[in-house]
Specification:
mainly alpha, DUF418, Putative membrane protein YeiB, membrane, transmembrane, Bact_Transport_Assoc
Amino acid sequence: MNSNLSDRIHSIDLIRGLALLGLPFVNVLFLWYMFVPIPETTLDIWVQRALYVFVEGRFFSIFSFLFGLGIYIFLSRAEAKESSKYTLILLRLFILLIIGFVHQMYNSGEALFIYGIAGLLFCWFYHLPKQLNLWLGITGFIGAGILGIKILMVFPLFLLGIAVGQYRVFERLQELRKPIVYLWLGSTVASIVVIVVLLIQAPSQGFPAMSISSENIGVNQTAANAFIHHALLYGQAITLFYVTTMILLAQKTTLLRPLQAFGRMALTNYVGQTVILLFISTFFSDTTVIQYSHTVWICVLVVLVQIVVSNLWLRVFRYGPLEWLWRCGTYWQTVPLLKRREG
């Protein structure tokens, strides 16, 4: 395999694995909303603040960006093979819509359905000039951030993913190492400033999970709304820090390699997180109370189990279970699942 292509695949899988790390810590609050009260203890209030500063909107943004990049990679590969690329991508996105629709029935905060819609709307931008896609992505992202509407950020991030693919950034990582280092330094400084400002601005009390109220229900909720909005907008500096850090580390260490298998099975693990958390909730009673700090430890355990299982699974199989079904459906044929044994 070409070394540049290998670097691209490994770096993308690693970043995708990073994104998966953070998603359950946010999604658990949707799935267990009946059992997780508004934080009251000092520990839980700080855990909630940390989730908004370091997690909420960060990993969702990375996942959205990677989805756009993935669409570009899929279309460019199909084009190189002289396949009917738009027939394949439309079928692939239709299957994703079905998976997302079913998943949405159990997890109201899920993203697959909106990704399917974004793909159908914007896969046609593949043939637009890369400069235009980059400009549309940046301006749209800033606009969505100013409005404070998280779901709207999917579309410009999707375009940024396509633009980065068009610029072949992940195939030129060695060539672009110096600019990436500068970007990492800039995002590090910006992240420190953002973290300090957000923690100063954070409400003194806990507030309802993952929602911005349009009703005037008190000073603390008003402060919470401003905090959530600013965390969503300015916190993207932290997102950039995460991504550039992972790109640089991917080229220097193998310690993060377990995350690559985790990222390669992104669809299976994302849906699997919902299944696992819902299964755990079946053991709760109507009077069960799960504190914010408890959800963190539970999600850490879930992620660790998934990382181990992903690495064991991919020693034997080529794809994760849902990835395999998605691939079979896309190409309308049964593709090999088991790895061939050498010798």
